[in-house]
Here is the input.
Amino acid sequence: MKAAVDLMKKAAVLMIKALYVFFRPLKVRDRITIISRQSDKATEDVKMLAEELRRLLPEYEIAVLTKTLKKSNFISYVFHMPVQMKYFATSRAIVLDGYCIICGIIPHKKETAVIQMWHAMAAVKKFGYDSVGKSSGRDAATAKIMGMHRNYDYIIAPSPATSEHFRMAFDADSEKMVTGGLPRTDLLVSGENNEAEIDEIRGGEEREIILYAPTFRRGASADAEGLMKALDSSRYKLVVKLHPLDERYEISEKKYSTYQWLMACDRVITDYSALGVEAALTGKPVYWYVYDIDEYRESTGLNIDPETEMPQASSVNAADLERMMREEYDFDALRKFRDKYIHVIPGECTARLAKFIADKAGAQVK
Here is the structure.
């Protein structure tokens, strides 16, 4: 059965390469294209980067292609791939924020720089080549057939520690690693929050609002019910933001984004998500509910182990976590944790990233 599946994958790869033959002769233009699979509309990072690139390079076309890949829209994504091919063939720079199937399959032109900025500020859990062979990772044959995470010219990471995690995940040479931050880093520390928007999100809530944003688990759902039972509802309001592919997604709050709740909440609970690092940038108390950490270490693997890095704010028990919230929070430990994984200068990330991309696209920027 596996041999048949691998054969089908190889056939699909050959079809993609054959189709690209029709796009490759197209002329490269003064165009920079951002391709994202994180959402069907531009994420905050994509919007901020595109806006800065347009300001910096008014003579360039800044194209944005966004489309998620799910079982429910697999066919429409297949028809979207030729559009991606066209832009790969005609852009001076391609910017990715996640895994792009055709990137590792088609041959790239020498005039085109491919830049992977990834969508997370850290790699708490292992992924990519660092998780090949594990139960939650890809198998080695699929990674090889699909050219998984191949053909990147540059990979952006916000610190030396994160750079090494990304390098291992992408199986990349150290020369490709570039220190830089995601655009939303600027927003998280800007202090320019829209107070009216935050008031609207909070809805007059007088209790402390706790955002619970766990990572995605294949074949399982995060233990939101355990937290609901453990937390004193007269003192706390728990806002649950599950991954869209979580099998219990129906219990997730859907009116506002995770980012909006991150700015509006008082505390954050996560687990193996990079949100823990992002939340640390806001200076709000962050906790790690890691009830299945032993299983997760085995099935996925961890680059950042909450029980080791932040033991005073991590627990396998929801009631114990609630107790921690009643005690004084160790903000010094949180700052050390943040500084280990974020070395960039908040407030300058968008501009620096845009200038780097513009340079690799051959634009002359002062």
About this structure: The longest strand covers residues 31-36. The mean pLDDT is 93.
